[in-house]
Every structure is written in C-alpha cells, then in structure tokens.
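Bench notes, afternoon.
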Amino acid sequence: MRRLKFFIKKWSMLLLCMVLVVRPTQIVLATEEETAETIQDDTGLTLYAQAAVLMDADSGRILYAKNADSQMAMASTTKIMTLLVALENGNPEDMVTVSAYAASRPKVKLYMKEGEQYRLGDLYYALMLESYNDAAVAIAEHIGGSVEGFAKLMNEKAVELGCKNTYFITPNGLDATEEVVLENGETVEMAHSTTAAELAKILSFCVTDFEYKEEFLEITRTASYSFHNGDGSRSFTCSNKNSFLNMMDGALTGKTGFTNKAGYCYAGALERDGKTLVVALLACGWPNNKNYKWSDTKEMMQYGLDNFYYQSFEEVKLPGHAFDPIFVEGAKTDEIGEAAYTEVTLVEDEGQLEGILLKNGELIEAICYRDIALQAPVAAGQEVGYISYQLNGEEWRRISIEVAENVEKADFKWCFLKVLEVFVL
C-alpha cells in the first residue's frame, strides 16, 4: 500500500510540473496580406477576395470558385443591374426631374439639385463611369415610380436570370436591410446582397444574351463623357473609374464598388482568344487596399486564358446506337410475322449552347437515352429518347431523338387481307 501511494504521489507531481512548464498554444491570426500570400488551392491562385468566381460567360460554367455561394454585400456592383433594368424599361431621351430624396443621396454624387432635369441617357454614364449615387436614385424613381418600385423590377430580373440568393433594396448599392413578409406570413430581415456566382451570372448575361448588350458595352467602356442639365446652366464631365479596361488586352467592361460593410468589390469581363470570361469579387480588401481587386482580377483572368480551351459540342462523338432503328410491336408490315422497325432522327432546339470552356484533361460525354421498343401506332416526330452532353455528370446540352416516319397499327382488317392474300396466291 505504501508503495502504491509513493507511485501516485510521484506521478501527480510529474503531471503538475508538466502543467506548469507547458504553456497554452498561442493562436496567431494572419494579416490580410499574409492570408493572400499563404493560402493556395490546387489552381495555384492566391486571392485577397473573401468570395470570388471566374465564369465562362457564354455557357455560365464556373471555372473557379471561392465561397461562390456566400451571400454578401455587393456595394456599387449593384449598378450593373440598375443599368440593365433601366435599358430594358427606360427611354434614354426622357427628361428626369430630380427629387429631394435623390438630391440628398450621399457621395459619391453628381450633386444634382431638387427640381433640375436631366436626360435619362446622360444619367446612365454618370451611373456607370463615376458611380454617382444620386444619379442611381433619379434613374430608379423615374423608371420605377419610386426606389421601392425599381427594386421590385431589379429583383424580378434577378429571378428571371436564375438568381436565388440575390436581393436588391437600393439602386446604388448602399448597404440596406428591410423586413419582408413571406407567403407563410413569417417576417424576415433581408439585406441588400448577392453572391459571387450570381453577380458573375448577371454580368455574363449583360455581355452575351442581353438585348441591349451593345448599349451596355458602349456606356461602360466610354473613357469620358460630357453632358449638361436640362436648361444648360450646368455642365459635367464623367471619367471612367474602371481601371481594368487598360490593364489587359481584351478587357470588355466592369463595375467597381465599395462600402464599409462590403469592402472593395468588382465585376469585370474580358474577351480574348474566342473566350469571354467574367470575374466577380466580393470583400476584396478594405482601405487602404483598393488595388487588391485589380490584382485578383488579373490573376483570375490569366488563369482562365491559360488553362481552358473551347470545345464545340458538334465535335463530340455520338454513340453509334443512337441512330439504330427501333423495333415497333404490332405494326403493319409487308408480311404477317415480319418484324417492324422505324428510323429515327436527331432534332435540336434553336438557341442551344454551342460549346463550352474545358480544362486540360476534362472530357464531354455524349450519353444516349432511348426506348428499346415501341408499340404501334407511332407518329413521325414522336420523341423516343435524347442525347445528353455531360461534363462531370452535369448536363450542358440535349438533343431529342424522334421517330422519322409514321408506323400504322396492325388491325383486324389488315390481318384478314394478309391471310386472304396467302390463300389467293
């Protein structure tokens, strides 16, 4: 017993010494610069932005993502949607009367005065080149009847484009929240916000499928623009603040943004070597690091140019059995007991995606899904399957397989006549 007590005492003292000697682990938080320099993924990219996306604008495929679906404040990148909605719903020749509310918006601003009038088309340049907050509100009130009415148009367009985690409250991107009553009666607080993936999707639409694509690009690519108010008593010159336009060959468009909550944000597009690339960055540094967004944008754009190539779906080999005739049971044939088959044809819908950007080593698969047999009668044009073009299990294009000709059903009259032929012969 004495020996046992000796060992217990000895080990207790040893443990006490270890507690006194071994200090708690010190947790060191990396600075913003250190984080960007040390955190890499398998792409080799080192980014400052807390959320980032590189998108193939033509297909909508995300080529690189970092926290792509995190809902965050977007600052003045909002104005991409403001211009989109304005171009769809406004007449650039309209004269806009400035309200007291619009004139009171915080800087950055044009310093419009209540009661002044401006040509709507001129305000588009003030909106996108200088990012003037008062111009955004004046545009919104003129087209939507109010800021709230215009925000409704913005949110409807976002849903139309497939955005599920984007919510607009202001036309200028200033941070805001509001209470929204859901269909079930529940009240939730919504913030003016988006995700990097959905911001990239919105800009991709503007530079590819937008009806007013050329007008959008003309406005956002203009280096300098001068105009005056309605009575000519005041004149203004706006200079484009999108420095990326002069940083890379093929730079197409873009919009900067900053608020204290959002940090520096940017969405930009580049067109080169048959590729249209879009970058979206959220929370890409805070003062005094306003140039982080440019380094991140250039790094991601170059990654897209260097590592992806265009693959046309027409060049993908189709499975041979896709064209095989299909057996039709119970069909009329030249002789009783003869097997009936129908030819098939491939039919493509208009507006289908023509190609996609692939990384080296990636492969598009054309997978055929079709009926093995049919029951007569069969009508020409009847769909019997489809070919699915897939990349990593995700479908990007589909072609219908349809019956090429009518096939009639073998009825009693047909059977009787066929039997009669046998006896007559």
